[in-house]
Amino acid sequence: MDTATATPLAPGFEQRVFDSIKVFRALADAMAHPGEIRRVNARPPAPTQLMPAAAAMCLTLLDFETPLWLQTSHASVADYLRFHCGCPMTPEATQASFALITNTLTMPAVNTFNAGEPEYPDRSTTLMIQVESLSNASGVRLSGPGVRDAIYLDVAGVSATYWRELQASRAAFPCGVDIVFIWGERIAALPRTTRVSC
To answer: Are residues 17 and 87 in contact, defined by beta-carbon separation less than 8 angstroms?
Structure first.
């Protein structure tokens, strides 16, 4: 490799331990309150294809034991995540512990990913999906544990077909994928316990 022309890797967290704790707390809060939009305060420098919250979540959750399925073809993203997280990349969606989706227009169907098995539902894939915007003003109706009565979530760029796929997948509980939608520094989580009404 010509080191004179190689693109330098962006640094990771400035304070790895403290920043990871902040991100994990924000994610846990989002999972405990499905559909509610939360802010991730840690902003690690990252390739431009990664939204701040996506980069922060990857630096917090990924390691050498968590295979990642990566939708983007940008080498800078893969290089960044390999270097800072040590995570193996897998081309097989069913083998991934996590999937990072950067384009909702071309993202795979819900059932493309590992939903786990009744004996081992924790082995399913967690989807991190970058989206165009998030709002609680309208959208699909969410209910279930952690939701008082119901909450609405509008996710720009996610099609009605995808929501119907997700709705149908909930019948397989305790199997199923957990989803975190990401918009800039904000996230909204849909654990598999959350019911979706389109």
So the answer is: no
Region of 46 (left: φ > 0; alpha: ψ -120 to 50; beta: rest) is beta
Total domains in the fold of the chain: 1
Q: Say which residue the tokens 């009565």 belong to.
A: 149
CATH of residue 167's domain is 3.40.50.11310
CA distance 172 to 51: 31
- Domain assignment of residue 9, yes or no: no
> Domain limits at 186?
16-197
The Cβ of residue 128 has, within 10 Å, a number of other Cβ atoms equal to: 24
User: Residue type at 68?
Assistant: L
**pLDDT of 38-79, one tens digit each?**
999 888 888 889 999 999 999 999 999 999 999 987 889 999
| Cβ(98)–Cβ(68) below 8 Å | yes
CA atoms within 13 A of residue 27's CA, in its CB half-sphere: 22
Residue tagged 């786990």 (tokens): 116
User: Looking at residue 120, what DSSP letter applies?
Assistant: B
Closest CA to 59 of 29, 98, 115: 98
pTM attached to this predicted model: 0.92
Cα gap 69→64, rounded to integer Å: 13
Read out DSSP for 167-179? HHHGGGTTS--EE
> At CA 187, angle to CA 184 and CA 188, rounded to 5?
145
